[in-house]
């Protein structure tokens, strides 16, 4: 019964995922971290209530949030709005934190949260900018505490280590490539030694490829998720120019990430002296295209990498690894 009061929460730029234990397995629920705004009317609110569509009223507007926002954006021929940008709260969206709160409440369901313990993901500080995520982390902590949870935060890369590297006693490199940021953590016996984030991830790929191919970023994301691969497969649904642009920006993501790891690890003077190579695990939605793992490993092996790596593998469940790792931490330490 006690495990049912512990949760792991991945607050990502693209999706918010809630994890909880069910017997010996983990269960995951997720919603799109996005919204659209509609003009307020009592009739519209009534219809949305009857249809069970998640929404809230803010400053004379109706905000439809979560998965339903994408359907409304399609109907209205508009873009969804994002509460987060590059892994942190979007400064251009004053209602962003309220939307994140509403999505968390939707996922967690009704009821008193007193006594519930929740571990939530936060991005590591950007490379060379230790203060970069402080406001985001503090705002989420306050919001989740107000909901009634006992909370702690966990950096996203370390969450991947907790989710995937139990067999190596939580020693290795965890990488999460999401929509807004890529997060990296080198851990030794569960202790983070080096961690950082990099503003190169799925959104960067989508924007860059869209600009190069004369497409809209939202359409690029949909086509990428359905048809793109890095293993040479060329489906006719993906225009050749867009396929080439995606490949260029994915290569940029991979090489930028490896270069950033080289820099961060070489600058760390207190790296543990290891007598064996380290496993490296890739997680997040941006690692899903077929061939990504092989292309990443090829680039890593070709680089002058300061650590020996035993294997490069995908997480067992890349989309849910961060939430799983947060839940592992909640079950172990809260």
Describe this structure in words.
Helix 5 packs across helix 10 (321-333), helix 6 (202-213) packs antiparallel against helix 8 and helix 8 (240-267) crosses helix 9 (292-302). This protein starts with 5 loop residues before the first strand and ends with a helix. It is of the alpha/beta class and 334 residues long. Helices cover 39% and strands 25% of the residues. 41% of the residues are buried. It has 10 helices and 15 strands. The protein has 3 domains: 2-32 and 72-162 and 320-333, 2-Layer Sandwich (Nucleotidyltransferase, domain 5); 34-71, no CATH class; 164-314, ATPase, nucleotide binding domain (Nucleotidyltransferase, domain 5, 2-Layer Sandwich). The chain is globular and about 65 Å long.
Mind sketching the topology for me?
Elements: E1 6-11, E2 15-22, E3 25-32, E4 35-39, H1 42-51, E5 55-58, E6 61-65, H2 67-76, E7 84-85, E8 88-89, H3 96-108, E9 117-122, H4 134-146, E10 150-155, H5 156-164, E11 172-177, E12 182-188, E13 191-198, H6 202-213, H7 217-227, H8 240-267, E14 278-283, H9 292-302, E15 309-314, H10 321-333
Keywords, please?
globular; 25% strand; 10 helices; alpha/beta; single chain; Nucleotidyltransferase, domain 5; five-stranded mixed β-sheet; 334 residues
In summary, what is this structure?
With 334 residues, this protein is of the alpha/beta class.
Assigned CATH class of the largest domain = Alpha Beta
Category by helix and strand content: alpha/beta
N→C terminal distance: 15 Å
- Total strands: the figure is 15
The CATH architecture classification of the largest domain is 2-Layer Sandwich
Any idea what the radius of gyration is? 20 Å
Percentage of β-strand residues: 25-35%
Looking at CATH, which topology of the largest domain would you report? Nucleotidyltransferase, domain 5
The number of helices is 10
Low-confidence stretches: none
* Widest beta sheet: strand line-up: 3-2-1-9-10
């Amino acid at each position: 019964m006690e495990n049912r009061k512990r949760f792991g929460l991945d607050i990502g730029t693209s999706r918010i995922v809630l994890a909880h234990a069910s017997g010996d397995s983990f269960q995951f629920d997720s919603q799109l971290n996005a919204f659209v705004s509609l003009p307020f009317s009592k009739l519209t609110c009534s219809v949305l209530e009857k249809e069970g569509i998640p929404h809230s009223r803010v400053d004379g507007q109706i905000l439809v949030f979560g998965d339903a926002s994408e359907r409304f954006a399609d109907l209205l021929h508009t873009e969804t709005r994002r509460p987060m940008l590059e892994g942190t709260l979007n400064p251009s969206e004053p209602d962003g934190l309220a939307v994140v709160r509403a999505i968390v409440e939707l996922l967690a369901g009704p009821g008193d949260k007193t006594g519930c313990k929740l571990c939530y993901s936060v991005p590591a500080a950007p490379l060379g900018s230790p203060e970069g995520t402080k406001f985001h982390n503090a705002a989420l902590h306050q919001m989740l505490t107000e909901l009634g949870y006992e909370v702690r935060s966990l950096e996203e890369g370390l969450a991947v280590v907790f989710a995937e590297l139990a067999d190596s006693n939580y020693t290795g490199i965890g990488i999460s490539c999401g929509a807004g940021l890529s997060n990296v953590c080198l851990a030794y016996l569960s202790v983070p030694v080096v961690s950082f984030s990099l503003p190169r991830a799925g959104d960067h790929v989508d924007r860059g490829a869209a600009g190069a191919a004369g497409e809209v970023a939202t359409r690029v994301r949909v086509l990428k998720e359905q048809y793109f691969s890095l293993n040479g497969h060329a489906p006719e649904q993906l225009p050749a120019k867009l396929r080439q642009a995606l490949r260029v920006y994915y290569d940029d993501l991979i090489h930028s990430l490896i270069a950033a790891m080289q820099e961060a690890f070489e600058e760390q003077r207190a790296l543990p002296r290891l007598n064996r190579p380290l496993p490296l695990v890739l997680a997040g939605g941006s690692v899903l295209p077929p061939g990504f793992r092989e292309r990443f490993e090829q680039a890593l092996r070709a680089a002058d990498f300061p650590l020996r790596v035993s294997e490069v593998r995908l997480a067992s469940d890349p989309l849910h690894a961060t939430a799983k790792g947060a839940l592992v931490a909640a079950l172990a330490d809260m």
